[in-house]
Write a structure and sequence with these properties.
alpha+beta; 7-stranded mixed beta sheet; 6-stranded mixed beta sheet; 8 helices; about 20% helix; elongated
Length: about 450
């Protein structure tokens, strides 16, 4: 009987001791970049379209012009330095329709007869309808390349941007992008289809500085990964001056960063906040094991708001539009420790939603993202341990300054600029940002995690 009573006392004592031991929990903060790219096969079709209208003739009067050199460069890079192990190249001459041509005929794009109607193999094309080159992506394994001066029939670039949206930049097509390689070249000829009235004027760059030469454009439409593969090569050529230093590269894509920004290092803290190596309130013992999680401990009687200033690495993708930092928004997931079930559970407490606020965003040229996190002590109404995961979402992009510099107005006859360029690029930007703000497509640029113990 005595032994039985002893066993009962020992068991109860053991259970009480176990109940007093806090649950050990390792928190994690996933800062891996979500994969938005569709799976790719080894095969890809590259469809190269050259605008064959007379407005392009002026680029080839000089047989060593930048335009001619670019034709040769594209032929070399697309044929020999493919982003896939097997690439099939197709060539087209572009006018009111697309005319299939051979590679040898494509090489004739370096000569006037490709444009002026003097060769029966290349009949005269009065106007360019660039949108006719844009076809559906064939299960993702197609890259469309269009070489043009962007002077479209009736100056209607909206037809082009609408076709791009229909087949590529929409919520049903994941991982697609549009890229532009923008250059100026020597030119001696007539510029057609200027404005809604289809005006024309002659332009000769002889004796002019390169910034007064005539622009042309190489448009890439396909998967983001294929486009950025070639654009990285163009950037290296530009660095070595094998491409002109004043050439521009821009990619319209909902992919913005190469890695998510996250907390690295602790900010300067006020005396009322502690930054311990772990948290323990008697119910749960929290460890982070080198995870990018900021641990904070708030004194029992504290009721102030604490602004904490951070500066973390920001890794934008090359060639994409700059992020508009004023448009950033946050999405907060909150977990509280359930002392009965001994686990963290999601909370929708509106007071806790306001307990942490991140804002005052600023991007610096040194690829740093600065922001302020405000901790509001009053909103932690019960002692305990709380886990906050804050996603930072991008909503808008900036326009590079060169867009306006290369754009001409309705009545201008400045051949160093392109009529309606700003409108066309603005339409592509709007399509991209609309896609960024659609459900399921909002790009995450950072994730900041906080474990907070309120005593």
């Amino acid at each position: 009987m005595i032994r039985f009573r002893w066993l009962i006392v020992a068991s109860v004592t053991f259970l009480l001791l176990v109940a007093c031991i806090p649950k050990s929990v390792n928190l994690t903060c996933d800062v891996s970049l979500p994969n938005s790219q569709p799976p790719k096969s080894d095969n890809m079709t590259i469809a190269i379209h050259v605008d064959g209208t007379p407005s392009m003739d002026g680029y080839v009067k000089n047989t060593s012009s930048r335009y001619v050199q670019t034709i040769e460069l594209l032929d070399s890079i697309l044929a020999t330095a493919g982003s896939r192990s097997q690439s099939l190249l197709q060539y087209y001459r572009l006018g009111t329709t697309t005319q299939p041509i051979t590679r040898e005929q494509f090489r004739q794009a370096e000569l006037p007869r490709f444009y002026d109607g003097s060769n029966p193999n290349f009949p005269l094309e009065s106007v360019s309808q660039i949108e006719s080159a844009i076809a559906p992506p064939d299960n993702g394994d197609k890259l469309t390349v269009i070489i043009t001066d962007l002077y479209q029939k009736e100056a209607d670039t909206t037809l082009l941007s609408q076709k791009i949206k229909e087949h590529y930049l929409n919520s049903q097509k994941k991982g697609y992008a549009v890229g532009l390689l923008v250059l100026r070249s020597e030119f001696n000829g007539t510029i057609y289809d200027v404005g809604i009235g289809g005006d024309k004027f002659t332009y000769n760059t002889e004796g002019k500085e390169p910034e007064k030469w005539h622009p042309f454009y190489v448009i890439f439409i396909g998967s983001y990964s294929d486009i950025t593969y070639y654009f990285d090569k163009f950037a290296k050529l530009r660095d070595k001056e094998d491409l002109p230093k004043d050439s521009q590269l821009v990619i319209f894509s909902t992919s913005i960063v190469s890695q998510l920004s996250h907390i690295e290092g602790s900010p300067q803290l006020p005396s009322q906040l502690n930054s311990p190596m772990s948290l323990n309130d008697g119910n749960v013992a929290v460890e982070v094991n080198n995870e990018p999680i900021e641990l904070l401990e708030i004194d029992k009687n504290e009721s102030e708001e604490f602004p904490l200033k951070y500066s973390v690495p920001f890794k934008p993708l090359s060639h994409t539009l700059p992020l508009e930092s004023n448009s950033l928004e946050t999405k907060i997931q909150i977990q509280t420790f359930d002392t009965f079930d001994k686990e963290f559970k999601e909370s929708t407490d509106p007071q806790l939603q306001k307990a942490i606020d991140i804002g005052e965003w600023k991007l610096s040229d040194s690829q740093k993202l600065d922001f302020t996190t405000k901790i509001r002590s009053n909103n932690f109404q019960q002692p305990g341990v709380y886990f906050f995961q804050v996603e930072v979402l991008a909503k808008d992009l900036e326009e590079p300054s060169w867009w306006k510099d290369w754009n001409s107005s309705e009545n201008s006859q400045d051949g160093s600029k392109t009529h309606n360029l700003l409108k066309f690029l603005g339409e592509l930007k709007t399509i991209t940002t609309d896609l960024m703000n659609s459900e399921g497509n909002k790009p995450i640029i950072g994730r900041f995690c906080y474990g907070i113990q309120k005593n």
